[in-house]
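Hi support team,

I submitted a single chain yesterday and got back a structure, but I'm not sure I'm reading the token output correctly. Could someone confirm the output below corresponds to the sequence I sent? I've pasted both exactly as they appear in my results page.

Thanks,
R.
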Amino acid sequence: MKELHQHIASLQAHVKYQRVLNIVLSVLVVMLCVAAMKPYGVITCDGWNVLDKNGAARITAFTRDDGGACMWWYDLNGRVRMDATTRVNGYAGLQIYDKAGKQRVATFTREDGGAGVAWNDANELVRITAGSNADGLVMLPTIDLEAVPANNLPAKQ
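Hi R., thanks for writing in. Yes, this is the structure output for that exact sequence:
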């Protein structure tokens, strides 16, 4: 019986030694991995998504083939609620959409240096625009009930 107790004690000491050795080796491996990592100041990619806990995209950013860039923000139903866009021709814009996915506010700069904002009704018809042209002309027109769709914003006058 005494031999059995000695054998068990020897095995326990050996197990203890192996546990300590495993911990030490694990710490060394982690330290080597961390030391080998290089911090990144800039991450370069063509696009990225921020996903919610269900895997649905909530924010998407990407570049267009022509060199422009876009960023879209989605609601819980997967509808774009806001988007920001730049284009190589100098256009930049920020659009805000209601819960039905209809554009309600659009801000923009044009390639000629003009800039503006448009407010739309629930049918995406432009009701009020405000803007300035590159030549300094400032506009604040309102549009009556026979309005035009938002994609037909008034051009530079």
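A quick pointer for reading it: The chain has two domains: 1-37, 47-152. Let us know if anything else looks off.

Best,
Support desk
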